[in-house]
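Rather than argue in generalities, we reproduce a single protein record, letters for residues, whole numbers for local backbone shapes, just as it appears below:
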Amino acid sequence: MLIFSSPDMKDWTLESSFGRGLGAQDGVWECPDLFELPVNGESGKKWVLLCNLNPGGPFGGSATQYFIGDFDGKTFTSDTDDSGKVPPSGSTTARTTMPPSASAMLLTDAAR
């Protein structure tokens, strides 16, 4: 996954890459989503990077995996170097989030 920045949405600068060797690698990584959430019971926050995968999900078909870590505005760094976590639901596609509040996220899924 490549992370770019732009001052004007016309000219783009490659800031960093993420994911080589992490998580499921058997398909195309698509529809990324990056958001910050508070850590339950702590004063700090963590960034969550959702990455949809199609095909190549661990249950067959498409899937969503996520990584928890830090983001400095240019580089996402996962807290661990293990595989991405997969929400338990089997085959999914194009999951995205909507922020209902500053302390929670709703996870949505495309209809099949």
